[in-house]
Amino acid sequence: MIEIKSLNDLSSLHSTQLNVIDFYADVMVRAWLCFFRLLIPTQTRCGPCHAIAPRYKALSEQYKDTHFFKCNVDAAKDVAAKYRVSAMPTFVFIKGGQVVDTVKGANAAGIEAAIKKHASGSSSFSGKGQTLGSGGGKSSGSTASSSEFNSHLYIGLALLTAYAGLWYFNM
């Protein structure tokens, strides 16, 4: 397994075979712990990144025709920005120089399913599709509904208000 440390290291990706890059973080959160009005810096390790690492290594040994890479987002911010990594861990699947799939989170079944889907010599499109005028139903996009967004917004605002109130009355 090769560690990608910069954009120059992307030249080691294979052009015809499937490449999988594991974007992980050594330190996920740098927070401040308030203990008796004394601010203490703390670091929290990325639990999901460390939990999926042994399974990712096992997959790299199981699928010999697929090339596996690792990329620390703190050390290679330019690479993470290129692939728009926004969650840890994120697994980016690249074939023929194009991103063909992405799995966010420590989802071992999802990673293996994506490897099986893209590593074979099958075509990149697998599905029935729809004909024009067939109606077809709803799209299968993963966009959140507006009511879901609103409820999350209200919860966030309530938590922020509670925090501000606690901070104000503790002063």
From TrEMBL:
Q: Which InterPro entries does this entry report, sorted A to Z?
A: Thioredoxin-like_sf, Thioredoxin_domain
Keywords of this entry: Disulfide bond
Give me the ranges of the annotated region Disordered. Answer: 120-139
Q: Where is the composition biased (Gly residues)?
A: 130-139
Thioredoxin domain residues: 1-120
Question: Which PANTHER family does the UniProt entry name for this protein?
Answer: THIOREDOXIN-LIKE PROTEIN 1
Task: Return the protein name.
Answer: Thioredoxin domain-containing protein
